[in-house]
Amino acid sequence: MAAFGENTTADEVLEGVDLSGKTVLVTGGSSGLGQETARAMAAKGAHVVICARNPAQMEEAVAAIKAEVPDAKLDTLTCDLASLESIKAAGAEANKRFEKIDILINNAGVMACPKMDTADGFEMQFGTNHLGHFALTRHLMPLIEAGAGKAGGGRIVNLSSRGHHIGPADLDDPNFETSEYSPWESYGRSKTANILFTRGLEDRFAAKGIHAYAVHPGGIQTNLGRHLTEEDNKFLMKRMKQQAEESGKATMFKTIPEGAATQVWAATAAELEGQGGVYCEDCHVAEVDDVSSNGGVRSYALDKATSDRLWALSEKMTHAVFA
Fold first, then answer.
1. Which of 71, 128, 228, 262 is deepest in the core (most CB within 10 A)?
2. Do the domain assignments include residue 260?
3. Is 20 a catalytic residue?
4. Domain limits at 75?
5. Does any domain span residue 320?
6. Residue 292 catalytic?
7. pTM of this structure
């Protein structure tokens, strides 16, 4: 088994892997980590569905991928994760067009944006990063179940972040209605929710052969940071510098191919077959660590009682009820 780590690329993870016959849906697949994930998996024979809100950007991504992988099997699916109506429509369309989804990669997200609301009145980061993916996963579940019986199928990868170290999810005030809004506090809560959702999926669907993985891609400079102010960038750089100093590294930034590696690994690694509900970083399953700022998963992000409570709240807020 290859020894993968922080500088491993998506292509290196997939060396010798054949994804022919697999259908992979990637949210946020029209740029950054999502596009690189789509390219790498298409290059190994997967049928990749790029799911994003902007059709023109998706077509640009398709053209860019086909320039490198001429025989890539690609489809697009329009979905705005900040709109439950759009999510429901995308789910209905996907169920009509596709026979199965072997691997769902919930890659899209927003980071540290100003206080904004989704179309349904949810705080934007919790509403997009967690609730949007929660609802979309529900609408895609019949397709995921159809793929679960196949070897290597039945995997859901949720893009989280070491940002979950910022703090636990606040299930009493998810929309910052009674507390002062902080872009980074909101981001951290939403990334914790991604891990709690992963735990919830594993608890409910492992018996059906569907396993879920939360992933920290590493620090990467992509358009995810498009909302960052000068103050936000200072906060981020301070955290990255602290982590670099603790680890003895010159920098904590990764390239996009390196950043996509861990989600590709979680989606395909043979050693993860039959297990899930874990948080992965640098192409390995991370240990529970409530102290280090340089790695590991906080125990509050894997807590079953909190996960169950978030699940119930999410079903209530989105009206997307899992059978």
1. 262
2. yes
3. no
4. 10-313
5. no
6. no
7. 0.92
